[in-house]
């Protein structure tokens, strides 16, 4: 059983190039190693989806912090507020009504395979980062 009370976990679409780039983006701006990661398609990802009652049809970014689950733009903004540099300022966008934020998020998500493609193979993270992947 994966313990998510120790650290926030980002669930991501492991088949998506944009999602992989987003994980790399987070890794490069999270020097304390706060976030851990699991592909939605992985065994750990499926276990976390079941434990936190994340629907099977969810293929967007999901953030699990303790017992709380955040989806789409809210997940992205909550992640941004913990990143080093000016990225944390993006959290101010949480003031925009969620339906408007989700419209923009959904537009990008709907076109992500067309614009960024799908992964044919998985990246093997370097040893110092590997422990952050569940």
UniProtKB/TrEMBL annotation:
Highest taxon in the source lineage: Bacteria
Transmembrane residue ranges: none
GO MF, any single term: protein-disulfide reductase activity
Name of the featured protein: Conserved protein YuxK
């Amino acid at each position: 059983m994966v313990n998510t009370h120790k650290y926030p976990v980002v669930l991501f679409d492991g088949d998506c190039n944009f999602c992989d780039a987003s994980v790399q983006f987070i890794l490069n701006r999270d020097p304390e190693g706060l976030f851990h990661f699991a592909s939605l398609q992985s065994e750990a990802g499926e276990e976390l989806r079941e434990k936190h009652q994340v629907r099977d049809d969810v293929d967007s970014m999901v953030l699990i912090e303790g017992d709380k689950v955040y989806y789409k733009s809210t997940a992205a903004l909550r992640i941004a507020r913990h990143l080093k540099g000016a990225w944390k300022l993006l959290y101010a966008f949480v003031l925009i009504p969620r339906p408007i934020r989700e419209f923009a998020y959904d537009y990008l998500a709907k076109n992500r395979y067309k614009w960024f493609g799908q992964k044919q193979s998985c990246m093997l993270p370097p040893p110092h980062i590997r422990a952050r992947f569940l």
